[in-house]
Amino acid sequence: MLLKRLFQIFWLASALIFKRNLTGPARLRIFFESAGGAFVKFGQFLALRQDFLPQRFIDELLKLTNKMPLVPLEKMEAIFANETGKPIEIFFLKFDPTPIAVGSISQIYRAKLKDETKVAVKIQKPDAKKDFERDFKAIIYLAIIADFFRFFSSFYLEEIVCEFISWTRRELDFTFETKNAMAVYNHSLTHPRTVVPKQYPELSTPRALIQELIELEDGVAVEDLFFKNYSFNHLSESGINPDEMANYIVADQMRQYFIDGFFHADPHPANLIFLAGNKLVYLDFGIVGKADSRRLLFLKTLHGIAKKDIDGSARAMMEFSSKAMADELDIYFKRDVKKHRLTLKIMEKINELILTDFKRDLGAILNPWFEALKRPGAPPAEKSATPVFLAIVKEAERHSARFPREMVLFFRSLSVLDMIALRISPSFDMIKALNYFFDKHHLEEIERIINEGGHTDELEKKLIYTADIDWESFREMAVLEKERTMHARERIMELVTHYSERYEELKPLMKNYK
Question: Are 259 and 385 in the same domain?
Answer without folding.
Answer: no
